[in-house]
Design brief:
Layout lengths: L1 E6 L3 H12 L3 E6 L2 H11 L3 E5 L7 H10 L8 E5 L4 H10 L3 E4 L4 H12 L2 E2 L8 E2 L2
Parallel strand pairs: 1-2, 1-3, 3-4, 4-5
Antiparallel strand pairs: 6-7
Length: 135
């Protein structure tokens, strides 16, 4: 199972992300707090961590450091998402250990492309984007 840990405190955003990523057969593991996310990461060994910039119980940079220190998530790709589009957030995210950044609002295609690239899925180009090769 290709688990994606989604750290987002807005239930509607979790639902939207779930609907979008289920198209590519991802299993979404939702977490509304950093503490919950860390516990779930230990339990489910996600292929990707998709994390909102603003988390209620922990500074985002601290949670990224935490994931990079945990053996099971040390090399797990982290995709940061945010509605704040300040020029230095992307740079700071990469310096903190994130593998990518996506601005909200995002299209379904943009999210799927970013997630698939980070998880290592290559997509054959065709008109319907229906051919997916899994590593």
């Amino acid at each position: 199972m290709r688990n994606v840990l989604v750290i987002e405190d807005e239930p509607n955003h979790i639902l939207l992300i779930t609907v979008i990523l289920q198209i590519d057969n991802y299993h979404i593991i939702p977490a509304r707090t950093a503490t919950e996310a860390i516990d779930l990461a230990h339990q489910h060994n996600p292929k990707l961590i998709l994390c909102d910039l603003v988390i209620p119980d922990m500074d985002i940079w601290a949670i990224i450091r935490c994931f990079r220190e945990i053996p099971t998530t040390r090399t797990t790709p982290i995709l940061l998402m945010s509605g704040f589009v300040h020029h230095d957030i992307h740079e700071r995210a990469v310096q903190a250990g994130c593998d990518g950044f996506i601005s909200k609002p995002f299209s379904a295609d943009k999210l799927r492309k970013e997630v698939n690239q980070l998880v290592g899925v290559s997509r054959l180009s065709d008109q319907n984007n229906s051919h997916i090769i899994y590593p």
